[in-house]
Amino acid sequence: EELHKSIIAYLSANNLPKSAAALREEVGLGEDVFDVATEKKYETLLEKKWTSIVRLQKKIMDLESRNASLQSELDNATPSSLSKRNQDPTSWLPRKPSRHTLESHRGMINCIAFHPRFSSIASGSDDCTIKIWDWELGELEQTIKGHTRAVKGLDYGGPRGATLLASCSSDLTIKLWDPSDQYKNIRTLSGHDHSVSAVRFISSGSGGSQSSANLLVSASADKTLRIWDTATGYCLKALRGHVD
Hints:
By secondary structure, the chain is of the alpha+beta class. It contains 5 helices and 12 strands.
């Protein structure tokens, strides 16, 4: 279904409305299900995924070439060359440089989180910001401001089809951001009495209810865990027991 939506959005964006309409009818994605506003969010997804496929193909070819080179080196190895190699652990396995180095934060980076479906990664920093990157292209997509102190934890989750980004901070708050709406801040959760150090969405599992997918747990230096309903912003329970 995601592929169909991406193709329809691509056709519409490239002035091929008849083709887009024909595909809509064939796969049963009418405007009541896949409206124009939602379509806009999928316009560039197909191109990104195609670029990823080409990049992966090149990577496979590079790995095959490297593998052939290593096999040739192994076939032609002598006892003395093997002994020399074994003395240097860094040469045991081939290492390629990192694909990208992402730089923009002005303070220490405390946390990262990968989007479960798209090629996005969020990072949180002592500079009080969250940055959204495209990890396939190595590009900064957006800087999110809202916290007033260091961002300590991040997590993507929530109901299926309605992924949210949760962040927590030394400013004692947890914030929920909507990736489908330019990471708009949709809710701020307050209740902890000290720095909030971690957040995690509670997975509902394959047979879980819709309501359980709305649950978020947070941990704080106030020695408590709190369970939140992200749909309402209410704290459902505070768990106490830690002494430090």
